[in-house]
Amino acid sequence: MRRIHMLALMVVISTGSTPAQDRLVKDGSGMNKFHSFNTIHFLNGSSTTSLALNSVNGIQFGNFFCGIGTGFDYYYHVSLPLFIETRMNLVKRKGALQFFVNGGLNFPFATRNKKLENRTGKYKTGTCYAAGLDYVFPVKNEGFILGLAFSNKQTIQKVDNNIWNPVLNRIENIPFEDKYSLNRIAIRAGWMF
Amino acid sequence: MKKLSPYLFFLFSTSFMLQSCVKDRLQTTYTYFVPVYKSKTAVWQSIKSAPPQALKTTGKLFLYGQYIFINEVNKGVHIIDNVNPLAPKNIAFIAIPGNLDIAVKNNTLYADLYTDMVTLDIKDPANVVLKKVTNKVFPERDYNNGFVPDSLQYIVGWEKRETRNKNGLDSKLVVQDTFNNFSSAQDSRGAAAGVAGISGSMARFTIVNNYLYTAGRSFLTTFNITTNVNPVKEHVQTMGWNIETIYPLKDKLFIGAQTGMFIYSISDPASPAFLGSFSHACFNDPVIADDNYAYVTLRASTEASFCRGAIALQKNELDIVNISNILQPTLVKLYDMEEPQGLSKDGNLLFICDGKGGLKIYNAANVMDLKELKVINNIKPFDVICQNGLAIVVAEEGIYQYDYSNIDNIYQVSKMTIEKN
Q1: In chain B, how many H helices and how many E strands?
Q2: Alpha carbon separation from B105 to B43, B228, B308 (Å, rounded)
Q3: Which of B40, B116, B270, B378 has the greatest CB tally within 10 Å of its CB?
Q4: Is ipTM > 0.95 here?
Q5: Which residues, other chains included, contact B113 with Cβ-Cβ below 8 Å and sequence gap of 6+?
């Protein structure tokens, strides 16, 4: 149920900006424009390779952009990131070279540990962040994105652990905490409009 | 696409080069317990009557005169004045680290202190006096979690600590069960027996006339207690493994083990002699007996899974064993139970602590057809002592006393609450 609520929230966040987009585009001022960056990431880390999908929606202020992003991250444990992203145009000729950085929360989506199956227990929300460079190739008024980034996501699992508690003189579940810090190099490709 | 090719080549090659620079990490934070040590001399000096303490993790139960002695597992002994069963009074606490078993005779209390045994003069329960410490009586006794102090110290408590391990994810660190140690301490619920007092069925100490018998995990030790405050070790008998309880009846001792029941003759009280045994699968099994039958409860649990295997394969039952031929005990009847532990018999009345099944009271006049008289199912009992129409029951929720002098009207006389941990 919690996961459904989370998904619904993320859908609202990622789609709720569309009217704003229309408004700003029609505004025509050229200063404060809505943009949506939708990317697929090929993630390469020391444990595995995997994919992630991101959608970042926000507003461009001159050379700067600020937006809210969400998506799916399939690396190691499936999770849903929710983050704030800022980006800046470094070079702008035909296309634009952009530096971006983002950070936020990483909500666990998987309910069991598929990699270490003997570790059962609840997952907790962790953090996530990323930084990298995107090059936006102009295609009419939109753009094709190609980029490279470093990204980190944390997943926390409270692992069931039945041990003898000599204070209470009984076997007790005193969970230990596994905090996964997953570092990846991401090749990013996507579409900006 | 041709335009993109150099970019893609750059991205992929850079990605694979950088990939070697990043590493997934797993940080595990776990809790463990460390022992608090105290010198033996300091511990002996502290063995005296102290103000009463709340009942928390109660163990064995022993009745002596107007007093109820209740073991607080690994910590000591509560003394309860039961002169008025309607309002039992917790009057004192004797701190004995590592204590699991007790027995009382002639105002003398015998108690284990980890591997040692202490003898206390309890003439005045408010002012008990340590009389003797007998060293290394229970060599098999474990300290929890595998800690072994040197010969000058005891473990008197435990501290909870946290620690962190950082590892590469590939190392698949496993700390689960590292500190899982099924020490003998978990076999601690029950009661001790004696001539002067009354015991339950889960005792490891019992007194018959001038002899104290203690059951270790695999040894039966005999002490001469003719001089009450000076027990003298006279005999050590090797028995089977995982001995759990000891029950005296006339000139016999019934020993409950996880693999069966052993019967010893104490015609020569200084040197018990093996008579016969009844074997069963591996279970927790306190035993009591009357002239013709032994009553053995078998309980499935994880506590001794080393020997019993999967819980699903285990049974919860009451076995009735014919012991009229003591050399060849034979099973005559078994009854299904839920979670049976301690049991007690007074005349034809059989009381069985059936865990979540409650306290069950049977008419056992005909063992082939036990008649259930009453079930008290709002408690989770694990040991019971019946004496003169009063059943004293140790349950998870408290220590209950029931009047059964009229079997048609068994009612609760009092309750002492056990604090939840």
Answers
A1: 3, 32
A2: 24, 8, 36
A3: B116
A4: no
A5: B43, B47, B96, B97, B98, B99, B133, B154
